Amino acid sequence: KAGVTQTPRYLIKTRGQQVTLSCSPISGHRSVSWYQQTPGQGLQFLFEYFSETQRNKGNFPGRFSGRQFSNSRSEMNVSTLELGDSALYLCASSSRGQGSPGANVLTFGAGSRLTVL
Amino acid sequence: GQNIDQPTEMTATEGAIVQINCTYQTSGFNGLFWYQQHAGEAPTFLSYNVLDGLEEKGRFSSFLSRSKGYSYLLLKELQMKDSASYLCASPRDSGAGSYQLTFGKGTKLSVIP
To answer: Which residue, among B105, B107, B108, would best test binding to A if mutated, counting the most A CBs under 10 Å from its CB?
Structure first.
């Protein structure tokens, strides 16, 4: 079956702009998580959605937001972009989103690489 | 907290064995994941340990000691394609019926001929 699909794969924006990234999870997966990956900080958790509800949120400013649709597809938005927002944004899905961690292994997409100039 | 520490970089020779260590804070322990990430690609799941001991999966094995807050990933018979970053991650119960994965910064392994 198809994996996690993220679009766009690469994009360049300028400071002050906003960006929307899209994620299509594996069919049947209802939980979608977003991570920011940078060389200095590694993977940092942004937020998690399950059945269109945000269940968890990481320690990021309010400029970072997201949503999930009824078909489990998710989008994240970053407004008023800053240079420090340049990163690889990874989306991951899991099947049930609840129960033991071992029963909910995250499957990642290839990411959207954002460059802010 | 879930502070996770692992070495930044390691280099090993093709055909050899390498051990990548990971330490974590033991409070609220819910198991430990290892992921592999090749440059420019998605992280992929390698292993999940929740009980003490060694679990073997072909050339890769993962070890856990809950009392010591310590895990390692053992790669045998190294191949060039094993050059990648290896990420250690610990789930934290978010209290919302789900777990939030906290990752270490990753260990970049370079396999040389």
So the answer is: B105
